[in-house]
Amino acid sequence: MTPPATGRCCVSLSARPPGPGTARQLVEQAREALHGKPVDLALLLASTHAGRAVERIALQVHELLQPRALIGATGEGVISDGLEYENEPAVALWAAHLPGASARSFHLSHEDLERLDSPSGLHEHLGLDAGARPSFVLLADPFSVDPLDVLQRFADAYPGRPVVGGMASGASGPRQNAIVFDGQTLRHGLAGLALGAGVQLQCVVSQGCRPIGQPWIITEGHCNVVQRLGGQTPLRVLRDLIESGSDEERDLMRRGLLIGFAFNEQRASFGRGDFLIRNLVRLDPDTGELEINDYVRVGVTVQFHVRDARSAQEELDEMLAGAPRDAVGSLLFSCNGRGTRLFDQPHHDAQAVTRACPAPLAGLFCAGEIGPIGDRNFLHGHTASIGFIRTASA
């Protein structure tokens, strides 16, 4: 009996300013690594140094490689296997041969999203109903689409299905980011991969924080304002937290304090990784109320958090302890605020992922990372969001 075909992934890289032969070089490396097998999925990830050349590279890669589905984007930095190319020229091509897998690419513009005002509309646009149980990889332009609206639409149309990806970065205004959809380079909207039967997406999201103090219940609040925590004003709670904290915790709180929302209220106790992290916007000295960058719900458990390199490293290692070593490929979407802006040594996140899973890795430094916490997908900041690609046989 002939054994079933297995999936295979590879990453090819050009770590220099792009030239006329860049696309051919990337494709030839990919063909050699895949032994000439047809390509089912591909991602083209380029640093902003590529400029307008990304348009030529995307078209040539699509023509030469002929992948079934290709998406891509530009960012401040590119990730290839265990290396992170921060603020330097690099173009990476991640390609996968996945026999029997169902996969397709798609593009959504702001106008498309306005028109597709129901789950059935998104089903029709993507050619996938909820029963197909797809997983998604999304790369989006933050100037032309609202990622929170996008994630809500995908949650309504495909409840409980994982989404991983990120927002293109490095641009200072609209129509400067590049979004690649098959051979086209667009300056708006989002490009996505829908992964169906025969391929699985397993996600790890590391928010890089650790809780301090104790958990509190929101007892009063509205919109994005926390009015009372356990009957006390947030200002009173924070004063007590600062007074009782260690010197190290007070130093970290001065650098930046965050708040975490428990995503599973059924837990008997909470620890690192049990919270969705959000930023503090404003603490009103007169009322003692706290504004945050998300909606507030009364009855939810919250806890204040701090972020530093040690906490980020420990949490990432903990989260990656369950990474699948049988994955055929992996994708990493890391915040621009990580890398050497957070860690003392370069290549931190990329090397952590490749230690946990030796599969070919590619990724992008993003202006917002997409990934699931629990059974919901969120837009994160300062996060490493990782998707492991597995075949049905695995």
How is this structure best described in words?
With about 400 residues, the chain is α+β, with helices and mostly antiparallel strands. It has helices spanning about 20-35, 55-65, 110-115, 120-125, 145-155, 235-245, 245-255, 310-320, 350-355; strands at about 10-15, 40-45, 70-75, 75-80, 85, 90-95, 105-110, 135-140, 165, 180, 185, 190-195, 200-205, 210, 215-220, 225-230, 255-260, 275-285, 290, 300-305, 330-335, 360-365, 370-375, 375-380, 385-390. Helix 4 (about 120-125) crosses helix 5.
Strand content: 35-45%
Please list the strands of the largest sheet in the order they lie side by side. Answer: 1-6-2-3-10-11
Q: Based on CA inertia axes, which overall geometry fits? A: globular
Supply the helix-strand structural class: alpha+beta
Largest sheet: 6 strands, mixed
Helix segment count? 9
Helix content: 10-25%
Rounded to an integer in angstroms, the radius of gyration calculated over CA atoms is 21 Å
Oligomer: single chain
Mean pLDDT: 93
Low-confidence stretches: none
Terminus-to-terminus distance? 19 Å
Describe the structure in brief:
The chain is α+β, with helices and mostly antiparallel strands.
Q: Could you name the key traits of this structure?
A:
single chain; 394 residues; six-stranded mixed sheet; 9 helices; 25 strands
How would the blueprint of this fold be written?
Blueprint: E1 8-14, H1 22-33, E2 41-47, H2 53-65, E3 69-75, E4 77-80, E5 83-86, E6 91-97, E7 103-108, H3 110-115, H4 119-126, E8 135-140, H5 147-157, E9 163-167, E10 179-181, E11 184-186, E12 190-195, E13 199-206, E14 209-211, E15 216-222, E16 225-229, H6 234-244, H7 247-255, E17 257-262, E18 275-283, E19 290-292, E20 301-307, H8 309-320, E21 329-335, H9 348-356, E22 361-366, E23 369-373, E24 376-380, E25 384-391
Parallel strand pairs: 2-3, 8-9, 21-22
Antiparallel strand pairs: 1-6, 2-6, 3-10, 4-5, 4-22, 7-12, 8-12, 9-23, 10-11, 13-25, 14-20, 15-16, 15-20, 16-19, 17-18, 17-20, 18-19, 21-25, 23-24
Helix pairs in contact: 1-2, 4-5, 8-9
